[in-house]
Amino acid sequence: MRFKRLALLYTQKCTAECDICCFSCGPKRAEKMSLSDAISYVEQVTDIPSISMVGVSGGEPFLYYPEILEIAKTANKQGLASSCVTNGYWATTKDIALRKLEGLQNFGLSLINVSLDTYHQQYVPLDNISNILLAADELGLEKTLACTITRASSRLYEMITPLGNDICNTTLIELPCLPIGRAIEKIPLPDFLVDTSMLSLPCFDLNDLAIDPQGNAYPCCSQGGMTSVLCIGSAKKESLIDLEHHFRGNMICRLLASHGPGWFVKAIENAGLGHKLNQSYTGICHLCYHILSIPEMITVVQGVADMEGKAIIQRALDSIRQAQNVVSLGEQL
Question: Which UniProt keywords apply (predicted)?
Answer without folding.
Answer: Iron, Iron-sulfur, Metal-binding, S-adenosyl-L-methionine
